[in-house]
Amino acid sequence: MAPEPEAGSNSNEIAELLPPPLPPRRKHSGEGLHVAPGQSKATTAMSSVDISTMSFPDGSRGTFTTSAMRAVSTPASGFATPSRGASEDGLTDSMSVVSFAPTMRPAGDLASLVAGEIQKSRAWNMLRSQSATVQPFEAVEDTTSTDDLAGFEKEFDNIPDLTTEGVTDDQRLALWKSKMKHYMILSSAGKPIYSRHGDLSLVNSYMGVVQTIISFYEGSNDPLLGFTAGKTRFVIAIEGPLYFVAISRLGESDAQLRSQLDALYMQILSTLTLPTLKNIFVHRPSTDLRKPLEGTESLLSSLADSFSKGSPSALLGALECLRLRKSKRHAIHNAFLKVRSDKLLYGLIVAGGKLVSVIRPRKHSLHPSDLQLIFNMLFESGGVKAGGGENWIPLCLPAFNNRGYLYMYVSFFDGSPDSTSSEPIPERNPDTNPDEEIAIILISPDKESFYNLKEMRDKVAHQLDKTGSLAIIRTAVREGRPRINAVAPATQISHFLYKSRANVQFCMATLELTFDGPEPEKLVARRRLMSVYHQLHASMHTKHSHLKVLHCVGAEAASLAWITPVFEFYCVAGPNASRAVMTQGANKIIQWAKREEERLFIIGGGVF
Amino acid sequence: MADSAGAPRPSSSVKLVLLGEAAVGKSSLVLRFVNNDFQENKEPTIGAAFLTQKCNLPQRTIKFEIWDTAGQERFASLAPMYYRNAQAALVVYDLTKPTSLVKAKHWVAELQRQASPGIVIALVGNKLDLTSDNAGTTGEGEPGGGDGDARKVSTEEAKIYAEEEGLLFFETSAKTGYNVTEVFTAIANAIPETSLKSARGPGAAGATSRTEEQRVNLNGPRDPNAKEGCAC
Ligand SMILES: Nc1nc2c(ncn2[C@@H]2O[C@H](COP(=O)(O)OP(=O)(O)OP(=O)(O)O)[C@@H](O)[C@H]2O)c(=O)[nH]1
Ligand SMILES: [Mg+2]
């Protein structure tokens, strides 16, 4: 029933590595060398350090309760880190070993981890300095046959439907099974509601099987949370009358898959509201929910695909903001507040998918999961954007209130810099890069307030234009995300994610340069990067994990995670980057983030 | 364009609403009318979209304020918000799908019951390019995907119904553009002068100020829509 593991692959071995849902089996202990003689496929070695005292970039120190070294549950480490293939030379192996040397000294700050590095011979150092500039995943390129992401470039291709001539059912089934990620939604009565891949004729019987399995366990009052088949992880979430299933060969942790399923559930609530959903099934448990959800498949799919491609925002549960000078951002907040309609609940300005300004009532803050739904609707799925004009959209923001609808006014400004018109674009400029589009979003509980909010939008547009803010936003959008070299000059780190925990926002380095290129290479390269982040994130967030710092070295990349009460930080470098180099780079980036905090993040927003 | 050089004609706003079953091509008709464009796999409308487009008649300029509503059932309860105060309505069906005409008739009945008494209603059978009997497709592009005729609603049937109910009637193709501007022009012409006057009156909320704005804009040299104005 499951997409079967490919014949002849190392599925047994991988299955071995898979952690059961909970509690995590001890895979590596943080202590001792990870020496796996003869284990040719060991790809990810980890070192973990529990640090009791840490210094923050601003010089302050914090003390945390530390338990003794805890087991690190490696989340399916065999998965997303592709096998090394031919490179079974001593170089990488010994590097794994070296970097796994535990650092017992309670480090004063991250950089002092360096002291734990084992002294190596001159020859070693020379050898490594030769290859220190290897980019992450560079080694992967010629090993596609053993690559766990082989075929990922076809992940989002449609499976031909029944009417397509010249495609047999077997071929369609094979295509369906080749997908690395599936999401299915069905009712507890077994009626299919949604499947990311394949039409009903294809998935109907599988849905039946899924329903049988789930309801069997549900009946025994011991709900099934997940299971593994070969390389494939199944995670199940039950929400009232609905079953959600994620099927993944991409190596996410159960918690990560579960939060993806939760987002799909939120999307359904956003369409229907909770009372409506309940009502439908109370009166007729066998209802076909596809009818009331008609037209939202593309929203579910764009959400699903953003998870499969790997979304830093979804992974971190945080939003990304447009980097602006503090004074400029305040000017925008104020211009926005000044023309506020009394019908307004929330006002947002979003540019290139990043938040520019938020205004909100003092009592209410916007929940990231609600914003994720809005951003998905406006920027990921084509429906609203392609329509042009202005939009008036009833939607439920479940984290705000899952019982009722709000009304959302949306209009896009033309992204082109020479357009002086602040009128809503009647015509989509085909040259407008979607990543540069500026949208204004005004949300009200009053469904009759369209004209009111439209008037407010015109005033905002006028104000922004008059004060030059629009031009500033456009410049900032075009500048894009920071380049790593501008943040930490001469570092070997290729990419980072930094989440400000208090602000529930994150920033990241540009994906251009290293993780760019023509499709489909770009798609795969980014997924590789995101897989590393998913693994780091999973290790840091395992239940009972008290990890503060985690350093991993694999054949394709080295990575580092660091979590404090203030931030979560993740970064990736080429496989040969030493821990010293990475920790130095990490410190620089974190100091930069601290310095730039008020530019990178919206702190509070405009409050009324 | 030449017109804009002359003395400004009196202009008035006309609120127009599009209603009809999901996927009959409402948004596509609007896209054709406003941008002269077509998208093969257009996504369903969520809620409603508001667009404007001018239509130059010999005696006056009509600025359509268009509400393109979502056809999906779950949005049906919002419809009154859009047709209330509307001076014109385009009720669209897909002439390859009989159930969509049934739905269209429901909308016509609801409009006749609930909308402003003088509302001008046009019944529009869309996707004419999928039939083999039309003049529109042969001119442009491939003739409706092969030799098959996908028509399921005869012109006669719809026409008779439209006459009975006093509706304007057109068969269109948003894909080829056939008859699209004609629908809007016919509506513009059918709006009674009196109804336009009242649009300027204080009764119609918001309409007054927009009419004023319109006058101001007309003098401006750049008008992104002028080139797209209907060919009338
Ligand atoms: N062949 C053909 N296809 C059309 C025509 N008009 C629209 N379509 C297609 O029909 C589908 C639905 O068109 P839409 O314009 O989105 O329909 P809608 O009535 O706005 O649908 P909702 O917004 O869901 O109510 C799209 O795939 C269009 O490309 C037409 O004249 N001919
Ligand atoms: Mg539409």
Output the keywords.
A: 608 residues; 6-stranded mixed β-sheet; 19 helices; 20 strands; B: 232 residues; alpha/beta; 6 strands; 36% helix; binds guanosine-5'-triphosphate; binds magnesium ion
Write down the Rg of chain B. Answer: 17 Å
Overall geometric form of chain B: globular
Strand arrangement in the largest pleated sheet of chain A: 1-17-18-19-15-16-9
Give the overall shape of chain A, derived from the CA principal axes.
Answer: globular
Count every beta strand of chain B, where a strand is a DSSP E run of 2 or more residues.
6
**Helix percentage of chain A:** 25-40%
Q: Return the structural class of chain B.
A: alpha/beta
**In percent, how helical is the residue content of chain B?**
25-40%
Low-confidence stretches of chain A: 1-108, 111-118, 415-431
Name every ligand kind in the structure.
Answer: guanosine-5'-triphosphate, magnesium ion
Question: Gist?
Answer:
The complex is a heterodimer of chains A (608) and B (232). With 608 residues, chain A is of the alpha+beta class. Chain A is built from 19 helices and 20 strands.
Textual characterization of the structure:
The complex is a heterodimer of chains A (608) and B (232). With 608 residues, chain A is α+β, with helices and mostly antiparallel strands. Chain A is built from 19 helices and 20 strands. Chain A has helices at residues 11-17, 77-80, 90-100, 122-131, 169-178, 200-219, 254-272, 274-283, 297-309, 312-316, 326-338, 368-380, 383-387, 450-466, 469-479, 484-487, 521-541, 579-595, 597-600; strands at 44-49, 53-55, 61-63, 181-187, 192-195, 226-229, 232-239, 242-248, 319-320, 346-351, 354-360, 390-395, 406-413, 438-444, 493-500, 505-508, 549-554, 558-563, 567-573, 606-607. Chain A is globular, with a radius of gyration of 25 Å. The N and C termini of chain A lie far apart (55 Å). The model of chain A is unreliable at 1-108, 111-118 and 415-431 (pLDDT under 50). By secondary structure, chain B is an alpha/beta fold. Helix content of chain B is 36%, strand content 20%. Chain B is built from nine helices and six strands, in the order αβαββαβαβααβααα. In chain B, strands 2-3-1-4-5-6 form a six-stranded mixed β-sheet, sandwiched between helices. In chain B, strand 2 and strand 3 form a beta hairpin. Chain B is globular. The model of chain B is unreliable at 136-146 and 198-229 (pLDDT under 50). The chains are: A alpha+beta (608), B alpha/beta (232). The A-B interface holds A 271-272, 291-292, 294-295, 298, 377, 381-384, 386-395, 407-408, 421, 423, 426-428, 447-448, 450-451, 454 and B 22, 27, 31, 34-35, 39, 42-53, 66, 68, 70, 72-75, 78, 81, 205-206, 224-225, 228.
